[in-house]
Design a protein that fits this description.
The structure holds 2 protein chains of 2 kinds. Chain A is of the alpha+beta class. Chain A contains 5 helices and 8 strands. In chain A, the strands form 4 sheets. In chain A, strands 1-8 form a two-stranded antiparallel sheet. In chain A, strands 2-3 form a two-stranded antiparallel sheet. A two-stranded antiparallel sheet of chain A has the order 4-5. The N and C termini of chain A lie far apart (40 Å). Chain B has a 6-stranded mixed sheet, sandwiched between helices. Classes of the chains: A alpha+beta, B alpha+beta.
Amino acid sequence: MQKSLHIDPNKCTGCLQCEMACAWENHRSFTIAKSRIKVFTFHKEGRFVPYTCTQCDEAWCMTACPVDAIRLDPVTGAKIVLEPTCVGCKVCTIACPFGTINYVASTGKVQKCDLCDGEPACAKACPTGAITYVDADWTGLGKMRQWAGKTDTNPATV
Amino acid sequence: MAWTKNVLRVNLETGTCTTEPLNMQWAQDYLGQRGLATKYLVSEIDPKVDPFSPKNKLIFVTGPLTGTMAATGGRYSVVTKGPLTGAIACSNSGGYFGAELKFAGWDMVILEGASPKPVYLLINDGKAELVDASHLWGKTVWETEETIKAQHQDPQIRVAAIGRAGENRVLYAAIVNDLHRAAGRSGVGAVMGSKNLKAVAVRGTRTDAYQMANPEAFFAATEAGKKVLAANGVTGQGLPTYGTQVLMNVINELGALPTRNHREVQFEGAHDISGEAMHEKRPTDGKANLVTNGACFGCTIACGRISRMDPGHFSVKDKPQYHGASGGVEYEAAWALGAANGVNDLEALTYANFLCNEDGFDPITFGATVGAAMELYEMGVLTEQEVGFKLPFGSTEAMVKLAELTAKGEGFGKVMGLGSKRLCTKYGHPELSMTVKSQEFPAYDGRSLQGMGLAYATSNRGACHLRGYMVSPEVLGIPVKMEPQATEGKPAMLKAFQDLTAVVDSAGICLFTTFAWGLADIQPQIQAACEGDWSEERLLLVGERIWNMEREFNLAAGFTAKDDSLPPRLMKEPAQTGPQKGAVSKLDVMLPEYYQVRGWTKDGVPTAETRKRLGV
């Protein structure tokens, strides 16, 4: 079964544990400037929204890369940056419609979410279940269940 | 190790920024944050210095767990000599600013002197500079943050700023970071204003600034800690759902909610301003005051309140800038802006709280000062002519008007900015100021909870609930249940709480974790992050050392045992209603015993033996 990161912004509190976990996983540092997942605060609306790469099937970044430095991990479905191959041209950052692949000046390479080889550190660190790693075919299952619970299937007993 | 080992020293007079190595011996003796910065302060300033003199210093400081995955690991403190009290001032804040300072590579920023013109400090990793802030002077905290981010084209900069209250030297002005998180008490913002420093803006991107001493042990310890917080009723459910406002109805029912300048101990309007009420749909627009809860950096509790006002409320009807969501009332603010004045309008409290965040002033001292002014008004001492409007207890309009005037520094707001001690003294009734060492009580009556009374009287920064939270044993039964009116064992329990709190405040984590965590939960996290041996015994010794160091500073500043006192109202006027009916403070019974368990003389001075034992 392939899995996807699933984000439920309603559950996010803006604690940034996910950003620290991501930075630690990839840079051995808690410095969130290096995180590949970002939590956005919409202060006046009272909303916190985590956002990262959703691993497009036909990934713009992968298609655009002139040196073939972005490859598909067939197990997780992640699009992975091969650092030794990446030349830091940043064409992928232009191609990505979502902004989730970014250049890292200190390494001269780009970075993006690689699903941590199938064990995403952000999902593990999230204390509220706002970020989960679930069956890719059923990311809507939780919401379906929630609405199903509101459906009146036996009016006679009411 | 968990310290960056770098101190940024900024001379505001000459405009120079220099780097110096952190004194690692002091880090071993005082851990970080509150303890470590206080050690620097007391070593560098004259205890008798005028808080507004350029010779006073202002220190922003992080702890070893700040900027780590330890739950709540995002705290920083501001340490200085406080203008409200004349005592040591140490105000603690959350939000995202503290972690960013650490990511930029700094344990501490020491600001000395005063700038000849308004400036802000811009820190970009290792680079620090003072930037002209003449265009920001006169602006609010909110405008300042927005302008700095736009000016540097960097939305990820974190900003801690003063508003107009700090510029106007309101004696309880706060430093506000991330729009609604504040180093709130004791007037640290006024000291910043006196130095012509508008803001500190930080961007931190370094990955090599500090390391965990033992990463594997660190993750084991912090993950275990997070599980304890999640499983605990207070930190796992009560605080995320209701915030600290979970306490309003509980404290009121216990007869410990100071009402109308402490004339009463129960408020008939408590429910209207409670955490539960924040969830209720308003009849006017069908929406609840509370939009959601929010967390500070690294916090898995998430007690923060994000509120949206009723746009039709009289206070904001024609002010669309307040119609969006922002930081809602916490328990202490709701009490001070509400029960302390007899005001039960949650929307008005939310508006006043927005103003406290927007222009940077402490809602506790402000609200309590409104309560004192209302009592003076009802006595006929303070007149409508002087204030500019009627000021009876319970007047929502008056409370709102005073908040606006204090924020702007206009009219009677100038007098309000002095706090209740100076206000009541000015009108000939100093006894009506509900303060210790000139700082106002927070939201628990010192008669109804005997241990809290003792905690207020002995707090090193004036009346405060965050120096020894005796509400835990007296109300919540943490770690053991103590009857509110009992005195037995409370001096020793308070000492233990004060010392433990000093450790927590020096570590970079939030005091609220201690609803669930004991030292046994905290110690492994510090041990794994920091080099050296950090046993529980040693940590408690560090806490006790910090407490005594603060005490010595206050004694040198001119305080004596006489200042470890409560207003006559709490000593002589019994609680009139509720389960604590008839109670007055038994401070005279507890204080001598407290001095004894502290190893102090009967005059409240640490004995030679105590000094030697702690190495103070």
